[in-house]
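User: Here's a chain of 542 residues. Predict its fold as tokens.
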Amino acid sequence: MTDSLKVGLAQLNPKVGDVAGNLARVRAARAEAKAQGADLVLCAEAVLSGYPAEDLWLKPAFQAACRDAVEALRADTLDGGPALFVTAPWAEDGKLYNAILALDKGEILGKRYKVDLPNYGVFDDKRVFSPGPMPGPLVFRGVRLGVPICEDVWTPDVVECVAETGGEILLVPNASPYEVGKTDLRVQLGVQRVVESGLPFVYLNQVGGQDEVVFDGGSFVLGADRRLKAKLASFAEQVTTVEFRRNGTGWECQPGPIAPETAGIESIYRAMVLGLGDYVNKTGFPSVVIGLSGGVDSALTAAVAADALGPSRVHAIMMPSPYTSAESLADAAACARALGIRYDIVDTGPAMAAFRAMLSPLFGDRPADVTEENIQARARGVTLMAVSNKLGGMVLTTGNKSEMAVGYATLYGDMNGGFNVLKDVYKTTVFELCRWRNRQGRVIPERILAKPPSAELRSDQKDSDSLPPYPVLDAILKGLIERDLDAAALAAEGHDPAVVDRIWRLLEGAEYKRRQAPPGVKITSRNVSRERRYPIVNGFSG
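Assistant: Prediction complete.
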């Protein structure tokens, strides 16, 4: 029996499906923790497969590759240490489990399976995994270690079982996606489990972007006294070792490094940078292409892209039409200069004229309307996709959550692209993010932030011609999307019933557009893709 236990916390950025690469990451982290004197190394949830691997988890060949990686790590531990608490999908007796396996001295000391399988929001674990039985602790060098997995600590039952069966320390591997305010929620959750069990609590989270979700790291350790003992960085890989010492009443974590908190608007920006960077890099694209309009959304997208990938991998294209103002041309060029990104101008006027000539036999003398506006937007979309095809960069769309929610976007036009970093960011938050970024170094011209938003698809067009003021619109959308309120409830909160009804109708009517939109970084508690799925054909009103 030992009186000291040093636990290496491996906050890693795995890639879904890249079992060999993830194995290498775990090995490198183990070597780093060994240099720090760790007795064991804890990995985040599903580190060998990546999380969420969705239907990839169901492939027998993938399950076998993950098992082979576990066996390779088991053999590694013959070198004398440190031990590994590694996580992987594990097939046994015809069932597939989300498992944590304790590896030491060339043996599998034990394994435990996730009990509470989330089936909400971005999670569908019940679709692929079977729930494990209530777990007792794993014994390592005489220390009884509880290893509940992620969702297992969001309710008290699993931790209660661990405590009642003699657990001494809680080591919790997680794949907990980012959303605004979630860091505090996790700490509060940990405190609850400590109060209930009396046990110190290690919360180890994954980091990195995977499709629409971003894992923000921010792993932490709470002592049995509920005090924060250590905290890892947010939005970055890190390997840190903390020491537990036995005292008269149990185990206590010695004070370790506490990284600065990343919260609020800064955390949103960091999540966007990480999510975009990982999406582009993990899919293998060399660069990105952005339609830089001189407006606030494309300017923010370009800033995030330059920060995520470096200016040399960002290509901005201004696509003026007869309706593009001189100010927009100047503002787009100024933004590109400030960011240090490539900037080109492609005039879409000839394409618009060609479409008019081509369609005039069908349209006759019908007056111009939204059709011509959409043609302009689609000419821009075709242009950007042509540049992508020829030069290899991924097109980034620039529509924000407010616009995507109500369908204020052109299908097969400005919605063309591979990723949308603003997809879950309301318009009012876009302005906040721009101001925050400018405080770090001005890259977005002030005039872009001051002028009324406009798609510039017709003369003197303003967003306010089609939509309520964005503070009003965003407040209503938050009620409809994130709070699931009906029109009557929002009216009772003081919103104009006619405006609420109009926005609700726009929201419901745009579902078919959103189903065809590219993925984008999840920021809020409920995005408008995987987390809000309404029938396209829908006769309900209210």
